[in-house]
TrEMBL record, chain A:
Gene3D superfamilies: Aspartate Aminotransferase, domain 1, Type I PLP-dependent aspartate aminotransferase-like (Major domain). It is an enzyme of class 4 (lyase). Belongs to the class-I pyridoxal-phosphate-dependent aminotransferase family. Keywords: Ethylene biosynthesis, Fruit ripening, Lyase, Pyridoxal phosphate, S-adenosyl-L-methionine. Pathway: Alkene biosynthesis; ethylene biosynthesis via S-adenosyl-L-methionine; ethylene from S-adenosyl-L-methionine: step 1/2. This is 1-aminocyclopropane-1-carboxylate synthase. Its EC number is 4.4.1.14. It catalyses: S-adenosyl-L-methionine = 1-aminocyclopropane-1-carboxylate + S-methyl-5'-thioadenosine + H(+). Residues 41-424 form the Aminotransferase class I/classII large domain. It comes from Hibiscus sabdariffa. Its cofactor is pyridoxal 5'-phosphate. It comes from the Eukaryota.
TrEMBL record, chain B:
Keywords: Pyridoxal phosphate. It holds the Pfam family Aminotran_1_2. It comes from the Eukaryota. Belongs to the class-I pyridoxal-phosphate-dependent aminotransferase family. InterPro entries: Aminotransferase_I/II_large (IPR004839), Ethylene_sulfur-biosynth (IPR050478), NHTrfase_class1_PyrdxlP-BS (IPR004838), PyrdxlP-dep_Trfase (IPR015424), PyrdxlP-dep_Trfase_major (IPR015421), PyrdxlP-dep_Trfase_small (IPR015422). Residues 49-428 form the Aminotransferase class I/classII large domain. This is Aminotransferase class I/classII large domain-containing protein. Gene3D superfamilies: Aspartate Aminotransferase, domain 1 (3.90.1150.10), Type I PLP-dependent aspartate aminotransferase-like (Major domain) (3.40.640.10). It comes from Hibiscus sabdariffa.
Length: 469, 438
């Protein structure tokens, strides 16, 4: 039988296999309050489970939306036949209004410039196809969402060159880091087509400062390249500083309708803000009509189900609902994040001060046996196997400094979070107080290494990859 | 909307500015003419009647009845208990209950003559995505797929645009009812070779779009043998399999494999969708069924870019697991499509127009070559424009389907009411009469 393509056989959907080992362990032994209280608690999944009740109560009050009805009349046939890649106009309008509302209505969006895609995963890949050739490069600040390695590179053949950020300045982007990344790309003979940032950041949980955004605008103007701002967490900004979108900066600098304005593209999704990853609702927003036109046609390969577009157009058009949802969601996220931060503090663990997202960027450098990624991996394995928490190691996010971990807080109940913190506290306590444990740690490291090598030879864990941010 | 640019826009990819999306072809131009002047029985009775859209609108009442009687399928039940779980479900394996329901449905369509394993089903947002995805997996940029003509115009975009893969046509003609022959396949293969293209597979549509006919078992065997001899893949796009007028006439490649004991089946992949059989193109439900484990695994991972909304998976899992519903639907849908087909064939015959003998699909393949001034593509397009602008019917010219014989047109019959179809047939009748008189 004929061979498969290089894309199929290279296995470079880019996913770090160790990252999914934690997932696999969780699947084998998942925590359940009643049935499995000693199981592994999933803290590696950036889901928003805090506000489902608000959605459920809206659905109960508005049965027409899911029931294919408009004003009591069935529109099933109309929806079933609707496959126009321009998208349901009512949904696009509701979506851009929602995006504006999230940005405090400081900016407005034109529904004719939005392209709907099956999730942000699809949006990001589509933008690569539109903006870059095979072998071109995009610059991304580290640490970044591990899924980008697959989404941006796999089928497109585009390369990622990292913009290294460090804890010395809270992982903010600097002018020198941008230049250095650009030069690195040149040294590798890669043509840089743009910069892609995630704002608010995954995994940092922070919003970009106005200075950083200004820096980016200057940089892309100077280099005449694109900027993609992945703002899928924009609705999760729960405390100050207030979220500043790239479009606001462009507006404030009077750059609307200039060339650079046409090179800035936004990616959005309802997977994080509304907690609906299953519904596959993503969007590209661009001021370049050719990008909008090309992306619209490409969206044929990943349209949003008309059933889902209709449901969400009804929901997001309900301004009373969106106002309440945004406010309550923020409040709950803030409360949860504080709980995580406080719990970590009690365990003597700090984290990057954050104001957004569904996770914290946790500093466990002081728990490393050495300032190396090997030590980070050892620590991570202990946390997965001994502490029984699945968290994400910084190396999987391409962080240049070992010892940082992303820990999610919005995908579990409050009690589960409390338990997780207690486990962590015990772990840290026992590690610090006992000298003998140092030798034990050495032994167990050897054991883990063997276990680790053994597990690497399994083919099966490749099958457990999930879409998770 | 043609994108007229003299040089590529600063900073965009070649793919973004290329015309391989194919939307400047007549196939889409007719669509535009319809959009600007659409027929409406009461408000615009002289408007353009859309006969270029392969939609199935004959069985919606069955779907609506099901939904009325099973509200839990669309509302997650009382108090929405399954809502959270459903909203969070983004596993690229797809809802198990839905895959199971799809496998059963595909078996029912084939009269139980082939079995489908739900774990070999990969879900994608429509067959459009499935075909592109398979192409990414089976071929490298610059490679070629062989596709029998005439074929669905969308393949030019779906198989080639972002993948960089080429299509080399397997020419078929009316001398044998446009069936694929070993000679034609061999000629296409040699043609690819002469262009230094590496052939990675052959893609057939069965039942065929635009022919509206199923492929005979003997021809399927020949195609499979050809693929085996050349050691290439075989993709069988069976999205019209539930739209055959008689259940027994459709032979799926799955049945041929079954007869051969699944020997050497890793080269075979089936594409399916609910857009045609169930009339749900808006819901974006496509599948890839592969007998190749590596293809299944890779396709599953790639499906991340094109997952089906879990809300929709839930709805359809409920609907298709209901045996009473699915059996009745398949049977009734067939009967209604047959009725429509007979109506249009007789209507055209009365107007003096012959069609290819069809037994499936949502369209017929009409022969207007006697009307051509010259047996050329230009003549065909001229005739098409007359039909669009004077008769005010949007039908698809064979040239947009890469047909090598001018004069054939695809005419859809299931995307309108019976009354509208009568009106369309009346107009054709009048047009043919006028031509005879002139």
């Amino acid at each position: 039988m004929g061979l498969l393509s290089r894309k199929a056989t290279c296995n470079s959907h880019g996913q770090d296999s160790s990252y999914f080992l934690g997932w696999q362990e969780y699947e084998k032994n998942p925590y359940d309050e009643v049935k499995n209280p000693r199981g592994i608690i999933q803290m590696g999944l950036a889901e928003n489970q805090l506000s489902f009740d608000l959605l459920e109560s809206w659905l109960a009050k508005n049965p027409d939306a899911a029931g294919f009805k408009r004003d009591g009349q069935s529109i099933f046939k109309e929806l079933a036949l609707f496959q126009d890649y321009h998208g349901l106009p009512a949904f696009k309008k509701a979506l851009v209004d929602f995006m504006a509302e999230i940005r405090g209505n400081k900016v407005t969006f034109d529904p004719n410039r939005i392209v709907l895609t099956a999730g942000a995963t699809s949006a990001n890949e589509t933008l690569m196809f539109c903006l870059a050739e095979q072998g071109d490069a995009f610059l991304l600040p580290t640490p970044y969402y591990p899924g980008f390695d697959r989404d941006l590179k796999w089928r497109t053949g585009v390369e990622i060159v990292p913009i290294e950020c460090s804890s010395s300045n809270r992982f903010q982007i600097t002018a020198s880091a941008l230049e250095e990344a650009y030069e690195q790309a040149q040294r590798k003979n890669l043509r840089v087509k743009g910069v892609l940032v995630t704002n608010p950041s995954n995994p940092l949980g922070t919003t970009m400062t106005r200075d950083e955004l200004d820096l980016l605008v200057n940089f892309i103007t100077d280099k005449e390249i694109h900027l993609i701002s992945d703002e899928i967490y924009s609705g999760t900004v729960f405390s100050s500083p207030v979220f500043v979108s790239i479009v606001e900066v462009l507006k404030d600098r009077n750059l609307e309708n200039t060339q650079v304005w046409e090179r800035v593209h936004i990616v959005y999704s309802l997977s994080k803000d509304l907690g609906l990853p299953g519904f596959r609702v993503g969007a590209i927003y661009s001021n370049d009509p050719i990008v909008v036109a090309a992306a619209t046609k490409m969206s044929s390969f990943g349209l949003v189900s008309s059933q889902t577009q209709y449901l969400l157009s009804a929901m997001l058009s309900d301004k009373k609902f969106t106002k309440e949802y945004i406010a309550k969601n923020h409040k709950r996220l803030r409360k949860r994040q504080s709980k995580l931060v406080a719990g970590l503090e009690k365990a003597g663990i700090g984290c990057l001060e954050s104001n957004a997202g569904l996770f914290c960027w946790v500093d466990m450098r002081h728990l490393l046996s050495s300032d190396t990624f090997e030590a980070e991996m050892e620590l991570w394995k202990r946390i997965v196997y001994d502490v029984k928490l699945n968290i994400s190691p910084g190396s999987s996010c391409h962080c240049s400094e070992p010892g940082w971990f992303r820990v999610c807080f919005a995908n579990m109940s409050e009690d589960t979070l409390t338990l997780a913190m207690q486990r962590l506290k015990s772990f840290v306590g026992s590690t610090a107080s006992n000298d003998r444990s140092h030798q034990e740690m050495k032994n167990s490291r050897r054991k883990f290494r063997t276990k680790w090598v053994f597990r690497l030879s399994f083919q099966s864990f490749h099958d457990r990859e999930q879409d998770e941010r | 909307m043609a994108i007229e640019i003299e040089k590529p826009s600063v900073g965009l990819s070649k793919v973004a500015v290329s015309e391989t999306h194919g939307e400047d072809s007549p196939y889409f131009a007719g669509w535009k003419a319809y959009d600007e002047n659409p027929y409406n029985e009461s408000s615009n009775p002289s408007g353009v009647i859309q006969m270029g859209l392969a939609e199935n609108q004959v069985s919606f009442d069955l779907l609506e009845k099901y939904l009325e009687e099973h509200s839990e399928a669309s509302s997650w039940g009382e108090g929405a208990p399954g809502f959270r779980e459903n909203a969070l479900f983004q596993d690229y394996h797809g809802l198990k209950s839905f895959r199971q329901a799809m496998a059963n449905f595909m078996e029912q369509i084939r009269g139980g003559r082939a079995k489908f394993d739900p774990d070999r089903i990969v879900l994608t947002a429509g067959a459009t995505a499935a075909n592109e995805l398979l192409t990414f997996i089976l071929a490298d940029p610059g490679d070629a797929l062989l596709v029998p003509t005439p074929y669905y115009p969308g393949f030019d975009r779906d198989l080639r645009w972002r993948t960089g893969v080429k299509i080399v046509p397997i020419h078929c003609d009316s001398s044998n009812n446009f069936q694929v022959t070993p000679e034609a396949m061999e000629a296409a293969y040699r043609c690819a070779e002469s262009m230094n293209l590496k052939v990675r597979g052959i893609l057939i549509t069965n039942p065929s779009n635009p022919l509206g006919a199923t492929i005979q078992r003997s021809v399927l065997e020949q195609i499979l043998d050809f693929a085996t001899n050349k050691n290439i893949h075989l993709v069988s796009d069976e999205i019209y399999s539930g739209s055959t007028f008689s259940s027994s006439e459709f032979i799926s490649i799955a049945e041929v494999l079954e007869t051969r004991g699944y020997k050497d089946s890793e080269r075979v992949h089936i594409v399916y969708s609910l857009s045609k059989d169930l009339g749900l193109p808006g819901f974006r439900v496509g599948t890839i069924y592969s007998y190749n484990d590596k293809v299944v695994t890779t396709a599953r991972r790639m499906s991340s870019f094109t997952l089906i909304s879990s809300q929709t998976q839930h709805l359809l899992a409920c609907m298709l697991s209901n045996k009473e519903f699915s059996e009745n639907y398949i049977k009734t849908n067939r009967e209604r499509l047959t009725w429509r087909y007979d109506m249009i064939i007789n209507g055209l015959k009365n107007a003096g127009i012959e069609c290819l003998k069809g037994n499936a699909g949502l369209f017929c393949w009409m022969n207007l070559s006697p009307l051509l001034e010259e047996p050329t593509r230009e003549s065909e397009l001229a005739l098409w424009k007359v039909i669009l602008n004077e008769v005010r019917l949007n039908i698809s010219p064979g040239s947009s389907c890469h047909c090598s014989e001018p004069g054939w047109f695809r005419v859809c019959f299931a995307n309108m009411s019976e009354q509208t179809l009568e009106v369309a047939l009346g107009r054709i009748h009048k047009f043919m009469e006028q031509r005879r008189r002139n």
